[in-house]
Specification:
By secondary structure, the protein is mainly β. The chain is 0% helix and 45% strand. It has strands at 11-12, 18-19, 22-27, 33-37, 42-46, 52-56, 69-74, 80-84, 89-93, 99-104, 117-121, 127-131, 136-140, 146-150, 164-169, 174-179, 184-189. The radius of gyration is 17 Å and the shape is globular. The termini are far apart.
Length: 191
Amino acid sequence: AEGNPLGFFGNEGSGEYQFNNPSDLLVDDDFNLFVCDSNNDRIQVFDKHTRFIRTIGCSGSENGQFRCPSGITFDRKNRLVVGDSNNRRVQVFDLNGNHLNTFDLSSIPAHSFHSGLKLAVDLRNRYFVLQRHQKKMTVLEDDGTLLHVFGNETDLPDVRINAYNDIFIDHLNRLALTESRLATVTFFSFT
């Protein structure tokens, strides 16, 4: 099979249709495209024809504002979940961009947020927050209750943890982690 480019849009900058380090993207059930525009501290939303719809967030540390959002996902309640790296938190929005909740991660010991947060949501609507290139993963209930912090090889004895890079949860509720230094993809399940 061969792939042919269908087109592209955007360029470097801070206006509509412009990006500065786009780090993640999602498509909703209506085929709207959500682009995590990290260094512009926002999420841009486009329709299926790539027409601009809205911007979610702006620079800052108040609810609904970002400092380097780096990962986005949808939860099982069809809400947008954003890893707000430099504010050390996870924020939750409805699909129209209305802020619903903020979960502070700054009190979690030994977490470093400089390299970004990646997110996945399991079938029980638990949020898995991966600290990229570190040996840390935090699991939260969808109300922000801290369930667990995985921080070293003893937390997951059957998994060779070195440097997490990305996270995904499949339809069988298996968690997949990519580990860049070991050049592996590891699957495992949580109860």
